[in-house]
Structure prediction request, 502 residues.
Amino acid sequence: MRRNTTDRPRGTFLTWYSAEQRGKKFVDYIEENFTTDKVSFVDNKGIGIENLVFDDASAKEVIERFKNEDVDAVMIINCNFGNEEAAADIAEALGKELNTKVSVFKTFGTAMLRADGYEVEFVGARKESYSPDSRKPHVEDGTIEDDQRRRDFTINAMAWSLNGKTFGELVDPFDGMYDLEDCIICTPCDPDITFSDDPLRMMRGIRFASQLGFELEDETFEAMKRNRERIKIVSQERIITELNKIVASPVPSIGFELLELTGLLEIIFPELHALCGGERRGNHAHKDNFKHTLKVLDNVARKSDDLWLRWAAIMHDIAKPKCKSYDPRIGFSFHGHEVAGSKMVQPIFRRLKLPLGETMKFVQKLVFLHLRPIILAEDVVTDSAVRRLLFEAGDDVEKLMTLCEADITSGIESKVKRFLANFEMVREKMRDLEERDRIRNFQPPITGDTIMREYDVEPCAILGEIKEIIKNAILDGEIPNDYDAAHAMMERLAEERGLKKR
Prediction:
């Protein structure tokens, strides 16, 4: 049930003296930690240093919180002469001081500037209304109460008053401070209305839960389930922005579990939803591949902040439902899922509006190769197999190894230790061969042009055949990775195939 907060105290009141002291703490931290010739306070129509107000948290904590959201400062203006003008006026004054361009968005009554790598946003108080079939709101000036009412969650619906009569008062009509203390994500008004107005708020709530480790309030969670179909009216560009923030969160599995529980995942990412559920037939069973994927994702997240390595973790078993088969004698198998999965990456990336360049190719490569180190770790580590791994993985081999180590999710500790020990043997072998043979990113010394220059032959299948034999000979350790050895093999192969010297 939704909590009844009407009997709780509504916010806190600060005296002029305490507000001034807390404002000084904020100013002191700014002056100590930022270059004063680049950052200064601008007195704009009576709004200056003397009006800065701060809450009980330390200045450092609050500023770090803003930084983590890629925002340097947020101001909510409650003025009698027009919010749009107020936001633009303050932003332009600060822009002149910092010698930077100011962008004014008149439709939404906001202004923004960039300075020192930060985005500083000035937001005027406004109210919004929505039609059921549109995600675009009708925006007009409003009071601070109107502005707070339209916020997505209670923790985002608080403000300090800078008005003379109420200076220093925390305006917290929806008890956001309590929800911050309790680590709760809760909508300020009826969650059905909140999510229907802007369905992306459902993903934002889940993203906050994943980033902050907060919990969804019960009725807020149930409203997400009821309104999940509304997400279909949201542009894919907005959805992928939130999804990437979930992927980049400290424990991304929190976000994906909530997406699945609310029914949103099936709509926005059906291929990942399809991994849900294990199956048992007789004495045979296979694990829940969705839960396994989330474990792998969290394991990678503990080792790396690389967004695309995390996406490789999400996609590494994506084709298992397509490749699933059952044999009563041996049980379930997912043969070829790494090949099929690599082919699924591009259409999924295209639909999700993820980049289709080098980052996509990186994910494809890791999905395609993710079983190779595991197979090596299960068997005798041969020089030939490691050379081929180095050749195909290239500069991404370390990230591939990180993914593969994360893929070991067995609950049997001895098995995990054995695999990790074997992975270390593979790494040692790679370091040795790389130093000796220079295989990583190598190009075979003999090309088709080389053969055509020396022999009277036009482009044909024989050229490819000779090049492939030479490449495999190098990777298998039959000849060293140098021109002379490769050239000698080329001459022998050309003679065997009847090619004539020019």
Remarks:
- The chain has 24 helices and 14 strands.
- Residues 413-437 form the longest helix (25 residues).
- The mean pLDDT is 78.
- Residues 410 and 416 are 6 Å apart (CA to CA).
